[in-house]
Amino acid sequence: KMDDDDDIPQFSSHTLAALQEFYLEQQQREGMKTSQGFNQYSIGSIEEDWQLSQFWYSDETASCLAKEAVLAAGKGGRIACVSAPSVYQKLKEQDGEDFSVCILEYDRRFSVYGEEFIFYDYNYPLDLPENLLPHSFDIVIADPPYLSEECLQKTAETIKYLTKGKILLCTGAVMEDQAAKHLGVKMCKFIPKHSRNLANEFRCYVNYASGLD
């Protein structure tokens, strides 16, 4: 007789333990009642960590950038989010849409997302898994964690390695010249907002005809 459990995806015990621990921490932090259920992809299911220089976008901004990425990637497109977890989480909310997405992120809490998570340290811009082929993403969305030329320059190496061409960069307005120099991107009219106001004016930059103008 065939085993009925055959087609149920099995998590490894390690993944399950990690998910469970993550879930419990969340519940304690939010004081959530279990009865409300839990959406692992919702914004806020992982809280921002300022020590990692993480600042989540506002819900509107994350949605807007996610929509732009899907349009830019096209049908069956591949999207890479480099240090832009709130956009990644928005993309995951649109589950079942015709695109795939990877998140390159320093914060290992995002490993709960399984194979889509790639540990990423901008200091080692090309230290990437072998299965991440060069120029295999239709669009790369990146938000370098620090407003420094060094950080932008190194993140730019990663972006250029991953993208087939399209780049959507979010960084401070002060980085406009550097962004043009390292990535050939121009500032858009769209102004990204964060869920907590940042001291630095933030802008989006693209190198293709986007819907953000």
Automatic annotation (TrEMBL):
<keyword id="KW-0963">Cytoplasm</keyword>
<keyword id="KW-0808">Transferase</keyword>
<dbReference type="GO" id="GO:0016279">
    <property type="term" value="F:protein-lysine N-methyltransferase activity"/>
</dbReference>
<dbReference type="GO" id="GO:0003676">
    <property type="term" value="F:nucleic acid binding"/>
</dbReference>
<keyword id="KW-0489">Methyltransferase</keyword>
<dbReference type="GO" id="GO:0005737">
    <property type="term" value="C:cytoplasm"/>
</dbReference>
<dbReference type="GO" id="GO:0032259">
    <property type="term" value="P:methylation"/>
</dbReference>
<dbReference type="InterPro" id="IPR002052">
    <property type="entry name" value="DNA_methylase_N6_adenine_CS"/>
</dbReference>
<protein>
    <submittedName>
        <fullName>EFMT1 methyltransferase</fullName>
    </submittedName>
</protein>
<dbReference type="InterPro" id="IPR041370">
    <property type="entry name" value="Mlase_EEF1AKMT1/ZCCHC4"/>
</dbReference>
<dbReference type="InterPro" id="IPR019369">
    <property type="entry name" value="Efm5/EEF1AKMT1"/>
</dbReference>
<dbReference type="Pfam" id="PF10237">
    <property type="entry name" value="N6-adenineMlase"/>
</dbReference>
